[in-house]
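User: For a reading group we're discussing how well predicted structures match intuition. Take PORR domain-containing protein. Before you show the prediction, I'll give you the sequence so everyone sees exactly what went in.
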Amino acid sequence: MSYWFLCGKGKVFGFSCGLRRGFNYQQTFSLVNVKLKWVKDKALDAVIAGERDLRAACNLVSILSSAPDFCLPIYHLSRHRGQLGLPHDHKLSTFIRRYPTIFHESYVFDSAGTLVPCFELTLEALNLYHEELGVIRDNMIDLIDRLCKLLMLTKDRILPLQTIDQLKWDLGLPYFYIDNLIPNYADLFSLFRLPDDRIGLKLLSWDDTLAVSQLEKNVARQTEEDLKNNCLAFPIGFTRGFGLKRKCMGWLEEWQKLPYTSPYADASHLDPCTDVSEKRIVGVFHELFHLTIQKKTERKNVSNLRKPLSLPQKFTKVFERHPGIFYISKMSDTQTVVLREAYDCQRIVQRHPLVDIRERFASMMRKGFRDRSRGLYKETAYIGHKDPLKIVQGHKGGGNGLDSEVDSDDDLFSEYNSDESIHCPT
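Assistant: Thanks. Here is the predicted 3D structure of PORR domain-containing protein, as structure tokens, for the group to look at:
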């Protein structure tokens, strides 16, 4: 029996071990008494760094791109705050001001006669967004297949929109996919009301050609005996210095030899208290992470998948029990789960074209943040009268001239706070 491990810079190596005589596939070999330590992985943490701000900024770009003149006042943007993933105690307007290469700020009067921030996209951001739309169009088949496979993982090929919304950034779905994408594929998807009164998305037909997991596709890594017995092993890698104990290694060797159950197959016959069932759970998440364009997602994003995926209670514990397959990053006061095999240090092995677009947005954000910290967006505000709606403006490209805050570092996650509105200067 062969087992595949990742070592050093993501290279794969294997070793063989014999199966213990008298081993029962349904027998439980629990790790309850084996404490697996968490070891920080700086390379994978670096992959997560800045992700929260990047996701929020890209979602705001999508929202503004659909608005007239690509411009909206802050109180309209705040309606989407729940989809941005920003901390609740951080002001949205101040977050936007941190990235003047993406957002340009002006001011409008609200119904109470108070000046409130109004934000629009810079020309550079708008052009990059149009490039993103082109990438999405060029990869539409792949995108639809990912959504189909996600629904095929579920018991009834149904997921609430709320659950899909939590995963749409990771899947590469457009922000307004319900309005702009789903109606174009009425032969594949249907929207309907769930018994709990939520709206759900259903896949109308099963596609056998899609019901092949990534692990099954990687047959080149498996021996002929493994394939014959359906004992597929997961690629494994550990953070340098992890030091897996002999008892854990012995358990892992036997666990890897257990039968592999496809995440697209019916697993109702499996005893949830066995390691065979746990291997199926790992297989489900292994496949789910392969459906995401960067092979990662926040742990909270999968919390609602227990019933749709027919998983037992506390199913996310597999992330801690299998640190050689999943890495849990604790950056930005959240837990992001990364599929280890997908990365060679900080470099993603299979690079989706949308990743390039996102990295260019991140580069623009870093530049704007640094320039603003250096005072390049601190011009004095002026009052104009050509446009009665926008009467106070700052430097084109960002900054309002009335903000005295000066950022002193290059950290995208520095604390920020400000009021959402100001009064008209006299």
